Amino acid sequence: MSVTKPKGFRASGVTAGFKDSGKSDLALVVNDGPSHAAACVFTSNRCKANPVLWSEEVIKDGEVAAIILNSGGANCYTGAPGFQLTHATAEALATELSISSGDVLVCSTGLIGPLFSADKMLAAVPNVVAALSTDGADAAATAIMTTDTVSKQATYDGPGWSIGAMAKGAGMLAPALATMLIVITTDVDLAPAQLDEALRVACATSFNRLDSDGCQSTNDTVALLASGAAQISPDLAEFTDALSSVCVDIALQLMQDAEGASHDLYITTTHAASEADALEVSRSVARSNLFKCAVFGNDPNWGRVLAAAGTTTAAFEPHQLDVAINGIWVCKDGQGAADPESVDMTPRKCEILIDLKAGDAEVTVWSNDLTHDYVHENSAYST
Amino acid sequence: MSVTKPKGFRASGVTAGFKDSGKSDLALVVNDGPSHAAACVFTSNRCKANPVLWSEEVIKDGEVAAIILNSGGANCYTGAPGFQLTHATAEALATELSISSGDVLVCSTGLIGPLFSADKMLAAVPNVVAALSTDGADAAATAIMTTDTVSKQATYDGPGWSIGAMAKGAGMLAPALATMLIVITTDVDLAPAQLDEALRVACATSFNRLDSDGCQSTNDTVALLASGAAQISPDLAEFTDALSSVCVDIALQLMQDAEGASHDLYITTTHAASEADALEVSRSVARSNLFKCAVFGNDPNWGRVLAAAGTTTAAFEPHQLDVAINGIWVCKDGQGAADPESVDMTPRKCEILIDLKAGDAEVTVWSNDLTHDYVHENSAYST
């Protein structure tokens, strides 16, 4: 009941046969209106997958009637046949739904390079339409999973309106965005430009603060579809706050299911001169393989935190820095303080706090440790 | 016979007791002149270890008579006692050698945070001086090892003059520099400014193109000491070429002994619009954990190469890129070409070639794969 919680939406998930496992791999979310207002945020990677290239055109008029998503293949670097398949998929779906293909977003996720079967895709389109239902959210959320071990869904209840979201993403998690496909539905009545503004704010403080492994995807898409079926136009700030809370909820679910991770890292930089400084320092720590290996080994290695901070341009005096790990100040004024042995590193949640003593800004970046299982999963993924 | 190969140098290595293993951990290289011209390059990390802060002052007059180096502790983020120990070490050595402490470089390497014993250091200074010998190069090179499995040394024979080098470094290898201590000796007679110019050129095309794990150290120091004992002043361009070849030799030795690595990556970006573009693309691939895990799994995953290239600002058309792995063009014009199964990934040496089709510049960055052993070694290092 995530993406079908708001009024005006149906969803489905079926098996097209792209995955060797035989698990479901094709999802559809349809906006029955009356409004078809929509907004999207796409990966900033310059090497974009074919469905991203297609969807960037579709969203230009701010109208989306349906979004179709497949797992089992990214359709990226597949050349002209890949773009043709994206186009043909949108056309086939448009015909089935009696809508314009120019209102159909397409998303794909999986391995880059190989192209999945066009025949299987086109044969499955009528099936995924036939399966549409107002309680199809779980089926849709399951069909977009790749290495995810659980489906990710979230909802929000506003006064007379609601938001629902589903997501997939477990590896290649980094700004911007975070290797994921996310569909967010709502029954509010807002214009495309308003949805776009709200979505950009929400992404900046949620998905763009998630950096699991520093790798940026070719297929990332966050789509926000508004049906207007609630016949309510909430205050934009109120809606943006609600949307942000849904996006943070989903971002934390992505972190908690990141490939091979044994710790969730909450890396907070506080008393920074600016939000940009705080973000740079937290992200730098989130990118330190050495620190992330140390966390995997339950080692509160604050020296590696400082070494990462030292690579940034943020305003701070190196010898005034404080670092706390799980609430213990292991470094004060640039020197060892509390005994690292006193830090309990066994919980999955690990909180790192870096005090720059340079201002009032604070940012938390979410990440994961670097583990044997991460290496294993990503060394064997395509074989 | 590395750092003592050039005329005018003595070296030694002894056990001061910083390492639990009891292995040697204190090295000394003395320049007996007649010239004491020198140049240094230090880490660009803003969080610098105490010996780096000291040595930055020492090198300002371009004169160095001795360099003392310890393993078993980085003396970084150790506060005032740490800087005082660096100072006291230089003073003690200066007294023993009847030189000025202002001509003594100090280097330390090991864990950040804890401070090694001042008593052990000061007790060992007379011993390391007593052990000085014109064939002490091996002993010195051995005493600076940390997680290195082999000592790194290199030499160059010029007409009537020579260069010798020793290095340590196995983890935290990234620009700039590459988590290492490197001492280079030569008996040429060149002025400090000439040595500085040559050293910066040599570092730019050697150590700064090594990026094993993206992590930047707090202690990196490359010191070049010239005794003038050969009484020859070679052409600066000729000397720079010779110095560069020694630095590349050492950089490749560092790569080949990187912690836990099972592949050495030679990531070449060719036909770039500029050297900066080529460097950015190669370095971006060198920073992709996902690609580096794939190589560990003997998977020629070119999609991850393109995903990394797509995060750069280099001039190229995403859909015109070619990628070869170990000589096989697995991607041509942005699409899969040769069967990845035909790529032999079993050799330790793995060559990645990215053709941007945008110009004439070419750069190779050296890196390693991301392995179980890397995670293991860096999760257990401080415990």
Topology:
2 copies of one chain form a homodimer.
Chain A: E1 9-14, E2 26-31, E3 37-42, H1 50-58, E4 66-71, H2 79-97, E5 104-109, H3 118-130, H4 137-143, E6 152-157, E7 162-168, E8 181-186, H5 192-204, E9 221-226, H6 236-256, E10 264-272, H7 275-286, H8 289-296, H9 302-309, E11 322-325, E12 328-332, E13 335-336, E14 349-355, E15 361-368, H10 372-379
In summary, what is this structure?
Two copies of one chain form a homodimer. The first copy, chain A, is an alpha+beta fold and 383 residues long.
- Overall geometry of chain A comes to globular
Interface with most residues = A-B, 62 and 62 residues
- Name the helix and strand elements of chain A from N-terminus to C-terminus, one letter apiece: EEEHEHEHHEEEHEHEHHHEEEEEH
Low-confidence stretches of chain A: 172-178
The CATH architecture term of the largest domain in chain A is 4-Layer Sandwich
What percentage of the residues of chain A does DSSP assign to strands (E)? 15-25%
Main sheet characteristics of chain A: 6 strands, mixed
Subunit organisation of the chains: homodimer
Q: How many β-strand runs of chain A?
A: 15
Q: Which features does this protein show?
A:
Ubiquitin-like (UB roll), homodimer, 383 residues, 15 strands, alpha+beta, 5-stranded mixed beta sheet, 6-stranded mixed beta sheet, Arg_biosynth_ArgJ (chains A, B), 2 domains, L-amino peptidase D-ALA esterase/amidase, 23% strand
